[in-house]
Every structure is written in C-alpha cells, then in structure tokens.
Amino acid sequence: MAIELKPTSSPLSATERQALLVDPGFGRVFTDHMVTVRWVEGRGWHDGELVPYGPLQLDPATMALHYGQEIFEGLKAYRQPDSSVALFRPEENARRMNRSARRLAMPELPEELFLESVEALTRQDVDWVPAEAGRALYLRPFMIATEVGLGVRPAAAYLYLLIASPAGAYFPRGVKPVSVWLSTEYTRAAPGGTGEAKCAGNYAASLVAQHEAAAHGCDQVVWLDAVEHRWVEEMGGMNLCFVVGSGDSAKIVMPSLTGTLLPGITRDSLITLAGDLGYEVEERRISTDEWREGNASGEISEVFACGTAAVITPVGTVKSAAGEWTVGDGEPGPATIRLRQALLDIQHGVAPDKHGWMRTV
Ligand code: PLP
Ligand code: COI
Q1: For residue range 246-260, what is the model confidence (pLDDT) as tens digits?
Q2: I need a labelling partner for 31 at 20 to 30 A (CA). Which of 42, 109, 333, 334 fits?
Q3: Would you indicate the residue range of the signal peptide (predicted)?
Q4: pTM
Q5: DSSP structural state of residue 32
Q6: How far is the CA of 272 from the centre of ligand 1 (A)?
Q7: Number of DSSP helices (H) and strands (E) in the chain, helices first
Q8: Average pLDDT of the chain, as a whole number
Q9: Distance between CA 279 and CA 271 in Å, rounded?
Q10: CB-count burial class (<10 Å; 0-12, 13-18, 19+) for 354
Q11: How far is the CA of 267 from the centre of ligand 1 (A)?
C-alpha cells in the first residue's frame, strides 16, 4: 500500500523554523506534516496519507479514549556528515510496535508500511532535522482504536499516525547526572501484564510515582519488580545499565528482560557496542541490595539510563525509603562516556556502521 503525498508548503518561514531549532528541547515543537493510515476489520490498512500536521476530530465515544487501546514507538533520524539523513534501526521499532499491537489486541502494521511512513515524513520535513551533534528528529509512530462505542472489546477500526519533532536533550540539564527515586509503593508492571508493550496505559500508571520521585527531589523513578520489590527493572521512559568493576575489568550489567520491562533498542545496541569495545556483558537480575552494597564497596562504579529520547544519561544520586547514595563520584563515569560517544558516533555517521544499523532515507 502506498502512502499518498498531500503536502502543503510550510506555514513557517526558514527563519522561523531555524529559531525553533535553536533550542528544541524534547517534544515541544512539531514539524509541518504527519502520516495517517486507517484500518477497518475486513478491509485492512487503507487510505495512507501524508498530510499537513493538525488536530484530529474524534467522536467522544471513540474507544481509545475509554479503554486505552493505544500503542506507540519512538525513533530518531540523524543528520549525516554529507547532510543526508539516516534512521537508526527503524526495523526494530516496526517489529516492537507489532509485538505491542498483539498484546493490546490491535492489528499489526506491515513492516514495509511502517518504514514507508517514517521515510516519507522524514523526507518531506527534512529541513526540520537538526544538524548539531546530540540532536535529531524524533519520530513518534502511534496507533489508536477509532471505533465508536462503549462495549469493552477489541475495536474494529484503528488509525495509525506518525508525527515528528526536532529533539535536543530529554532532560533539561542535558547529560548532567540525574537523581532517581526507588519506588516501592507503586508497581509499573506485573508478570502477565503489559510491561514489555509500549502502550499508553503503562505511562499513565507511572505518573503518580514520577510525582512521588519529584516530591523527593528526584528527576526520575526507578521501577522494581512487582513481586518482591527488590529487583531493578527500568525507569519511566528508559532502561538502566550498571557498570560493575572499573578500568580494564569493568563489566556491563543490564537488568534481564523479564517480560515486565521494555526491550529497549538502545539497550540492545549497547549490548553489542559494549562487546565491540571489549567489555564483558551480562544480562541478569540486579537487586537494590546489590546496588546499594556494590556502590558502598566501589564495585558498582557507574549506572546510566539509556533510551531513544534519553540517549545515555548518567545516574548520579539514588534515593529510597531505605537511604540515599551517590553513584561513584556523582559524575559521568568513563564507561558511560565511552559507550555514549560510540553510539552517537554511529548515529551521526562519524564512525563506521559495521552492524548495518543506519537506514538512509
Ligand atoms: N523503557 C521504557 C519504559 C521506554 O519508554 C523506553 C523508550 O522507548 C525505553 C525503555 C528505551 O527504549 P528504546 O531504547 O527502544 O528507546
Ligand atoms: C523514547 O525514548 O522513545 C520514549 O518513548 C521515552 C519517552 C519519551 C516515553
């Protein structure tokens, strides 16, 4: 199915666009166009269009508004040294979106259609792709149930949309280490739930704990497992990575994918990159006791958050009901800096893409 292009010229002048690109922040500014594709039971995907960015008109009884059938993705397009633009591992986002779709009883979007949509929008709004290192065009594909009705069942009609937003640092303080709150009162995801799907409900349910983290002076919440409240899972919108040992013996430890956390594409890429850089990598469960005691003994030297929006952001301070500690010396550690640079160099096309992760649009 081809996406029909119905673009209009940008409502903004080049100067106005440049002004917005000076400090885009994260998710505040949107480009000129969006993609929409409809799905109806019995007919499948149809009416793919690239149209001017604008509001949606929805019936108040639209099912997504009542029972939360919404899934989304997040990926970035990076300006390359020759001023072309390339997407980072978009095929992985297409696959994860379909895993989320299956979990939420929504229709799968053919991978080629997903890729066609991200390429068409990136090409159309290419002037919005920032050129500075560490900046990129953030693409947000998502799908909502559009059938009108209040019966609780999988809807028979859906809308897939794609919007784009030029993005700088996700955290307002850039790559400065963030502080995290270990939440024991709330749970993000339980076995058999939707933790490994990227659905709106997971984020809605996390906001009260994010509030709690802020009340303790922290930037983010760290989620623990739902059963024992002692295994570290992930953060609100990013995975976590631990550096155990230091110097030549530093090992990268990623909390294992238990089914209750999101299998991050950045996480997966860093497992490969860490191996390339000579680190031993382990995927295993890591407890809050191990974190606290390992921090005190110096065994856990660095901890960082990783994700498309957050890139790699060091964790500097940890607070919990059981106490507070500083990770390492509270500054970004050497392994964190090395991995961050290695990832950004590939994404911005200044290091060889030996794993074939970049897809030129
Ligand atoms: N965990 C959660 C809850 C997220 O929302 C994200 C962001 O997408 C991640 C982890 C990191 O995933 P990725 O690296 O694919 O962006
Ligand atoms: C991403 O990194 O793409 C995310 O979805 C994280 C957050 C903005 C929800």
Answers
A1: 888 899 999 999 999
A2: 109
A3: none
A4: 0.97
A5: S
A6: 17
A7: 8, 18
A8: 96
A9: 9
A10: exposed
A11: 8
